[in-house]
Amino acid sequence: MAKKPGFQVVLYYVTPPSAEQLQGIWNFVLSKYVNDERSADDINFSVEADESLGGGFILKCGNEVYNWSTRGRLGQFNEKLQAIRRKVGADEDVISILKTTADEFRLTARFRRSGYVVSAGDGIARVKGLERAEYGEILIFSSGIKGMVMDIRREDCGVILFGKDTEIRVWDEVARTGMRAGVPVGDALLGRVLNSLGEPIDGGRDFEAEGFRPVENPAPSIISRQPVDTPLETGILSIDSMFPIGRGQRELIIGDRQTGKTSIALDTIINQKGKGVKCVYVGIGQKASTIAQLVSTLRKAGAMDYTVVISSTASDPAPLQYIAPYSGTSVAEFFMHKGEDVLIVYDDLSKHAVAYRSLSLLLERSPGREAYPGDVFYLHSRLLERSARLSDEEGGGSITALPIIETQAGDVSAYIPTNVISITDGQIYLESDLFFLGVRPAVNVGLSVSRVGGAAQTKAMKKASGSVRIDLAQYREMEVFTQFSSDLDDATRNQLRHGRLLMELLKQKNGHPRSMVDQVIMLTVVNSGVIDSIPVEQLRDFLDIYLEKIKEEEKSIVNDIEMMGTLSDDEKYFLVKRAEDHLAEFMSIR
Ligand code: ATP
Ligand code: MG
Fold first, then answer.
1. Is 257's C-beta closer than 6 angstroms to any atom of ligand 1?
2. Active-site residue among 38, 85, 299, 451?
3. For 239-456, which CATH class?
4. Are the C-beta atoms of residues 312 and 304 closer than 8 Å to each other?
5. Residues in CB range of 193: below 8 A, 6 or more apart
6. DSSP per-residue string spanning 545-579
């Protein structure tokens, strides 16, 4: 019979062990590792000097490590320190805690089965000796830092680190937790700013969580879903009228840098005030200052009361950026499973894909198109599939997702944009040229679409918006066509004038979402064409005065639109008639 390869036992030391110590250690090895299959002869025992231990010994038996070194003990002390920090965070009597912990603390040698670090750097550690560790499991390093297993090989496993890799050194102990990455969830999260692990980063107190949810969860099945039919109003006229978003839908916001992508998402969050929708904003790879500004905008608008902000800034390690959207979705799922409607914004998934690419490259996975790994589609599909509208048996809650993608020079056919376009139920395409022309929000009407669309629009809005999209498309075409000709026939001139008014109507400053009633009335009036003769620059003033009048005098129409979402033919005719009269009055005083 072939002899089994020897069992390697290595003793690392700083000061050479005495004969007595050596005998003791040998006896320990014999007692532990000699069994039916292995005799004392099979054990290759060797000793090696290693200055970095600081003092004491490390005994490595096959894949198991016994750490009696000074550094190992310091590791234990660090764990205690971490515990103290956590407690102090909870604002107890600091001195007494320090006292008791110091009393309780004894330096003891550890005989715990654990792994050890073979290399660490760039946010990744390679760990040996944890054969049973599972993919996605959380590991704890002796310095208190947590990591997640992302790569399992025959020899070792690759771990992404949720803390600074500089605090992890070769030989550090690593223990399994048997748990998957998760975040605390609960109503107490509302109004807070958290990192991707669910820890508050707004300087506020710790909160009382109602539970804990893994960051990765399977998407709801087909049976537990129902079709999208309730509108989620963004408050942005051009979106609500032409590309309506329904609760449970996933609508992509895509555009170059600085085209107002974040503003659309923010306005949508602000517009949910009083509508019973909870919001989650996930910032991935944003500047900390941008997030601070965003939180203050939300706070000023009173939107933080129903919003959770999860942020992993550009300076955070890639692993934290990678899990941020999954953590955010878990928080959203908590509300959805309670039967509530949730809006979640991922700002932005391009940076998320980049973070995942750097992780994958560091884990030595083979690069594919644009150096992204092969599973980058799955990265976003498993995330966005978790947005859904649950059936009534499941409570009827929903998650509406607004992922954001940043394009380079308007290129929507790059790898990540095409992936996400194919996963979502439509996109709002923002264009730099329009933005610089002053058409803001810079929505490109031709390239934007909402595939759930009509089902998620109230009857009133459907009636009011009519053919806006087609009118606008025709106007844009004709505008280019007539640029060089001077004498136009009346029909063309009218169409151009109408188009120009529509364009003006759809301009909307950020931070000023409009109610559905306002939108319906304005659209009805402008679409009817009765005010086409008004100079473009006076449209806004006219509509403001007109709206105020209608809302004051015609409560029943306003009520129908607001409560029932309907606008009868008579009401429409009446609104148009009133606009015509009002226009005569308006023009006479100008
Ligand atoms: P980034 O690529 O940096 O994330 P972004 O596409 O998210 O940018 P925003 O930050 O939303 O763009 O907006 C860029 C600038 O344009 C901001 O200063 C914002 O105030 C302004 N802006 C956005 N929307 C409008 C609007 N509808 N009207 C006027 N200004 C706007
Ligand atoms: Mg932005």
1. yes
2. 451
3. alpha beta
4. no
5. 200, 201, 202, 291, 295, 309, 310, 311
6. HHHHHHHHH-HHHHHIIIII----HHHHHHHHHHH
Note the pLDDT tens digit of each residue in 35-89: 888 888 888 888 888 877 777 788 888 777 777 776 666 666 566 666 656 655 5
Q: Say which amino acid occupies 270.
A: I
- 7-182, what's its fold? Elongation Factor Tu (Ef-tu); domain 3 (2.40.30)
The predicted model gives 81-109 an average pLDDT of 50
- Cβ burial of 310 (10 Å; 0-12, 13-18, 19+) is buried
Nearest of 216, 150, 195, 176 to residue 362 by alpha carbon: 150
The C-alpha atoms of residue 509 and residue 440 are separated, in whole angstroms, by 7
For residue 255, which of 440, 437, 432 has the smallest C-alpha distance? 432
Atom of ligand 1 nearest to the CA of 266: 11
**Domain 463-588 architecture:** Up-down Bundle (1.20)
Residues with CB under 5 A from ligand 2 (ion): 262
Question: Can you give the length of the chain in residues?
Answer: 590
Distance 259 CA to ligand 1 centre (A): 5
Strands 398-406 and 426-430, by their bridges, are unpaired
Q: Rounded mean pLDDT of the chain?
A: 89
Q: What is the pLDDT of residues 520-578, one digit of tens each?
A: 999 999 999 999 999 999 999 999 999 999 999 999 999 999 999 999 999 999 999 99
Residue 175, strand partner residues? 140
Is 262 near ligand 1, meaning CB less than 6 Å away? yes
Q: Which ligand is nearest to the CA of 237?
A: 1
**C-alpha 50, offset from chain centre:** 45
Q: Name the closest ligand to CA 508.
A: 1
**Following DSSP, what letter does each residue of 347-405 receive, concatenated?**
ETHHHHHHHHHHHHHHTTPPB-GGG-BTTHHHHHHHHHTT--BB-GGGT--EEEEEEEE
- Write the single-letter amino acid at 475: Y
Gap between the Cα atoms of 247 and 387, Å rounded = 10
Which amino acid type is present at position 326?
Y
451 belongs to the catalytic site:
yes
Please, how many CA atoms are within 13 Å of residue 65, restricted to the half-sphere of its CB? Answer: 22
**Cross-strand pairs, 426:** 450
